[in-house]
C-alpha cells in the first residue's frame, strides 16, 4: 500500500502545474466549459486532452490514453462514463498521476450498484495513494492561483479574494459564484465536493486554514459526515483566527431520541447541530445570501471587538431599521459621549438630532463632506466598539466621474484612519455595478456589505464569533469525563428509585426517598419523613408515573398514605417489581429540567429548560454538547425564554444561578462517566429555591 500525507495530497490537488482532461470531446458541454475556463482565467501550465479516438479536440491534438501523454501530469480531470472511471485511475496511477477530479456521476448517489462501483474506486485509490475529489462533482476554482478545472462556465470577472467556499452541492456552486461576483466578494477557492469518497469537507477546510490566500471559510452543508474530523478542522480554523460560516440544511422537526425521556423532545437533530457549531465557533446562517454576505464582511472587517455600535447614516428611516435589527442581533447602540455629541452638533444642520443611530440628514446633497466628517467624529467615541457607515457605491457613471471618485477617496482615507473598525453597509442587496466596482478599486474604498437586513445579521454574527474566539483563547479546555462509574448489566429504563439512587451515590443533592412494598412500610416511611409526603408508583421500567395516575401529592396522614398506596399499586397491574416510593413533599421555588441525550453523530448533549409540565408545553430549552462546566450551564440558563423566573420574577426569591449551574454540570459529569451504553439521563424536576437545589425525580435509559 502506498501512503500519502492527506494535507500534502490536497495541496497538490488544488495547485497542479499541468492538467489532463480525460474524456475531452467537442460534443461535451463539460469538456468545452472546463477547457475554456482553464484558458480564459489564467492557467499557464500545459492542458492535455485525452480521447480514445485521438484526433483534434477543442482545436488541439488529443491523445488516446494517459499513458501516451508527452509530459508529466499533476491533475487528471475525469469526464468518462461511470464504468470507465476505475480503468482511467488505474492507467493514471501507472503513469504516475496522483491527483484526480472525477466529474462523472452514477456512483453512491445512484443506488446499490453505484455504491459498489464507488467502493471499488475508493479501495483502489487508497491502495495506490491517490487523492480524488468527487465523484459527482463539478471540480474547483482556485481563483487565487488562476487554476480553474471546473465543469460549468465561469463568467468574467473571476474575482480573487480571501473567501474560500466549500459546497456539498454542484448545482449551487455557479449560483454562489455569480452572487459573489455581483457583490464584489473575491474568492480564494470554490470547490464542489461531490460524493466525498476520499477528499472530504474537513480535508478542504484544513487546506483553507493553511492557505495564506484565505481569511474566511464559507460552507454549504447537506450533512456533517464525520463530526470528529469536522470538529478538528473547525477548532484549527478558530485557533488560526479564520472564521467558518456555514449554511447547514436539512433542519428536521424536533424528534424524540428516546420515547421514555422528555429530554428527547427537546433535542432534535437541528438543535444539536446548533450546539455543536456554537461549541466549535462556527457561524450558522440560514440562506445563501447570508452565507456570502457574512463571509464577505468577516473577510474585509476581521474580528469586531464588541457589541457597542455607533451608526452614521444619511437617512432617518434607515436609522430606525438599523435600531430594530440591532436589538434582534443583540447589538448595543449606546448614547454618544458628551464630547462626541458636542462635536457633531457643530457640524450638523440645526434641524438634525444628535443621537445614535445618527441621521446626518439630506444635507449631504449640499455638503458632500458631511457624512465623512460625522464618521470621523463618531469613530473616535470612547464608548463604542465599531462603526456602521450606511452608504452605497454609485450605480451609474455621472457626467463628471471625478466627483464621486474624490468623495469616496476621502471616505476611504477616514475609514483607514479610524481607531475603530468601520463596517460599510448598503441600503439594499443590489448588484455592485461596473462603475461602482471601478470606484472601489481606484479609491481603496472598503467592501460594502449588501443591504441593511443581511448586513445587520452579518455584523451580529461577526460580534458573536469574535467573542467566541476570545473565550476559546482565554479559557482552558472544558473538563473531561471523570472516573468511569461501573454499572453492571444496565439495560432498558431505570425508573426513579434506581436512577435517583445512582445520582445520590455520586454525591448529588437528591430528595430523600424510601422504596416500600406495603401499606405499613409506606406509613412508617412517611412518619419518619414527616407530613405531608408524596407517594409515587415504582416498578421496573416505569418511565412516566403520571401517565398511569401513579403520583399522589400532599398526603397529610397515615390514612391518606394507605389509600394512596393501594391506588398506585392498582395502577401498576402487570408491571414487574410493583411498589411505591415515599418522599417528603417540597413546595416553592422553580422547577427545571436537566437532561442528557446521546446524539448518534455528536455524542452526549445537555438540554436545560423549565421542568415539570412546562417542558411539554413550552419546550423552552438551551442545548450544549458535553463536556460542560458551570460557566457553560450558566450561559445556557441565560438563553431561556423563562430566565426571568430564575431571576425572581414578580417578587419571587431569585435563584442562586451559580448553585444551579454547579449541580447541572455535576449531573452532566455523571452522565459522561456512565459509558457508551447510556442513552439518556434526565433530572425532571430539578427544584431551585434560592440557594437550595434538589433533584426531585430522575430517569435513566440505557441503549
Structure characterization notes:
Helices cover 37% and strands 20% of the residues. The chain is built from 23 helices and 29 strands. The strands form 5 sheets. A 7-stranded mixed sheet has the order 3-4-2-1-5-6-7, sandwiched between helices. Strands 19, 24, 25, 26, 27, 28 and 29 form a 7-stranded antiparallel sheet that branches. Helix 4 links the parallel strand 6 and strand 7. Helix 12 (338-347) runs antiparallel to helix 13 (370-379), helix 18 crosses helix 19 (558-571) and helix 21 crosses helix 23. The longest helix has 23 residues, at 452-474.
Query: Helix tally?
Result: 23
Assess the beta-strand content as a share of residues. 15-25%
**How would you state the average pLDDT, rounded?**
91
Category from helices, strands and their pairing? alpha/beta
* Total count of strands: 29
What summary fits the major beta sheet?
Answer: 7 strands, mixed
- Poorly predicted regions are 253-267
If you compute it from the alpha carbons, what radius of gyration comes out, rounded to the nearest whole angstrom?
32 Å
Distance between the termini: 38 Å
Question: Helicity level, as a percent range?
Answer: 25-40%
Strand order, largest beta sheet: 3-4-2-1-5-6-7
Shape: flat
Concise description?
This protein is an alpha/beta fold. The chain has 23 helices and 29 strands. Strands 3-4-2-1-5-6-7 form a 7-stranded mixed beta sheet, with helices on both faces.
Amino acid at each position: 500500500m502506498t501512503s500519502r500525507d492527506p494535507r500534502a495530497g490536497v495541496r497538490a490537488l488544488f495547485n497542479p502545474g499541468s492538467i489532463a482532461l480525460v474524456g475531452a470531446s467537442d460534443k461535451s458541454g463539460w469538456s468545452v466549459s472546463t477547457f475554456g475556463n482553464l484558458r480564459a482565467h489564467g492557467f499557464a501550465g500545459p492542458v492535455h486532452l485525452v480521447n480514445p479516438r485521438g484526433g483534434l479536440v477543442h482545436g488541439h491534438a488529443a491523445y488516446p490514453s494517459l499513458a501516451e501523454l508527452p509530459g508529466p501530469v499533476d491533475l487528471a480531470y475525469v469526464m468518462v462514463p461511470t464504468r470507465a472511471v476505475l480503468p482511467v485511475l488505474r492507467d493514471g496511477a501507472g503513469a504516475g498521476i496522483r491527483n484526480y477530479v472525477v466529474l462523472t456521476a452514477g456512483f453512491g448517489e445512484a443506488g446499490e450498484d453505484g455504491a459498489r462501483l464507488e467502493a471499488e474506486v475508493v479501495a483502489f485509490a487508497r491502495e495506490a495513494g491517490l487523492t480524488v475529489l468527487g465523484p459527482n462533482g463539478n471540480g474547483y476554482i482556485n481563483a487565487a492561483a488562476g487554476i480553474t478545472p471546473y465543469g460549468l462556465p465561469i463568467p468574467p470577472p473571476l474575482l480573487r479574494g480571501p473567501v474560500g467556499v466549500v459546497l456539498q452541492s454542484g448545482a449551487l456552486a455557479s449560483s454562489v459564484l455569480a452572487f459573489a461576483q455581483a457583490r464584489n466578494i473575491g474568492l480564494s477557492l470554490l470547490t464542489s465536493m461531490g460524493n466525498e469518497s476520499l477528499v472530504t469537507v474537513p480535508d478542504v477546510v484544513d487546506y483553507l486554514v493553511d492557505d495564506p490566500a484565505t481569511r474566511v471559510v464559507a460552507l454549504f452543508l447537506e450533512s456533517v459526515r464525520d463530526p470528529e474530523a469536522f470538529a478538528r478542522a473547525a477548532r484549527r480554523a478558530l485557533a488560526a483566527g479564520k472564521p467558518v460560516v456555514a449554511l447547514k440544511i436539512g433542519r428536521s422537526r424536533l424528534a424524540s431520541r428516546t420515547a421514555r425521556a422528555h429530554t428527547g423532545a427537546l433535542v432534535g437533530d437541528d438543535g444539536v447541530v446548533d450546539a455543536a457549531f456554537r461549541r466549535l465557533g462556527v457561524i450558522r446562517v440560514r440562506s445563501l445570501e447570508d452565507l456570502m454576505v457574512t463571509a464577505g464582511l468577516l473577510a474585509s472587517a476581521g474580528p469586531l471587538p464588541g457589541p457597542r455600535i455607533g451608526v452614521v447614516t444619511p437617512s432617518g428611516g434607515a436609522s430606525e431599521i438599523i435600531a430594530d435589527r440591532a436589538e434582534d442581533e443583540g447589538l448595543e447602540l449606546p448614547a454618544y459621549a458628551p464630547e462626541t455629541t458636542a462635536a457633531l452638533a457643530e457640524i450638523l444642520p440645526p434641524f438634525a438630532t444628535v443621537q445614535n443611530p445618527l441621521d446626518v440628514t439630506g444635507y449631504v446633497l449640499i455638503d458632500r463632506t458631511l457624512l465623512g466628517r460625522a464618521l470621523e467624529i463618531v469613530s473616535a467615541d470612547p464608548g463604542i466598539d465599531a462603526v456602521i457607515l450606511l452608504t452605497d457605491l454609485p450605480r451609474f457613471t455621472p457626467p463628471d466621474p471625478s466627483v464621486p471618485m474624490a468623495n469616496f477617496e476621502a471616505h476611504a482615507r477616514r475609514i483607514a484612519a479610524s481607531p475603530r473598525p468601520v463596517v460599510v453597509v448598503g441600503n439594499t442587496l443590489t448588484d455592485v455595478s461596473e462603475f461602482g466596482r471601478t470606484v472601489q478599486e481606484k479609491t481603496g474604498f472598503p467592501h460594502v456589505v449588501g443591504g441593511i437586513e443581511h448586513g445587520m445579521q452579518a455584523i451580529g454574527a461577526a460580534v458573536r464569533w469574535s467573542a467566541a474566539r476570545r473565550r476559546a483563547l482565554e479559557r482552558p479546555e472544558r473538563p473531561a469525563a471523570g472516573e468511569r462509574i461501573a454499572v453492571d448489566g444496565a439495560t432498558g429504563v431505570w425508573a426513579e428509585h434506581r436512577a435517583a439512587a445512582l445520582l445520590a451515590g455520586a454525591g448529588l443533592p437528591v430528595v430523600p426517598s424510601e422504596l416500600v412494598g406495603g401499606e405499613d412500610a409506606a406509613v412508617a416511611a412517611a412518619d419518619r419523613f414527616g407530613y405531608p409526603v408524596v407517594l409515587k408508583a415504582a416498578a421496573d421500567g416505569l418511565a412516566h408515573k403520571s401517565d398511569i395516575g401513579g403520583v399522589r401529592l400532599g398526603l397529610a396522614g397515615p390514612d391518606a398514605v394507605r389509600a394512596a398506596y393501594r391506588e398506585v399499586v392498582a395502577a401498576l397491574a402487570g408491571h414487574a417489581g410493583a411498589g411505591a416510593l415515599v418522599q417528603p413533599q417540597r413546595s416553592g421555588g422553580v422547577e427545571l429540567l436537566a437532561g442528557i441525550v446521546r446524539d448518534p453523530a455528536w455524542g452526549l448533549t445537555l438540554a436545560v429548560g423549565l421542568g415539570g409540565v412546562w417542558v411539554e408545553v413550552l419546550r423552552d430549552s438551551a442545548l450544549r454538547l458535553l463536556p460542560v462546566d458551570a460557566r457553560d450551564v450558566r450561559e445556557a440558563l441565560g438563553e431561556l425564554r423563562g430566565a426571568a423566573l430564575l431571576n425572581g420574577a414578580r417578587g419571587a426569591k431569585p435563584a442562586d444561578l451559580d448553585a444551579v449551574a454547579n449541580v447541572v454540570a455535576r449531573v452532566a459529569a455523571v452522565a459522561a462517566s456512565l459509558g457508551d451504553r447510556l442513552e439518556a439521563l434526565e433530572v425532571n424536576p430539578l427544584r431551585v429555591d434560592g440557594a437550595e437545589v434538589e433533584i426531585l425525580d430522575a430517569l435513566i435509559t440505557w441503549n
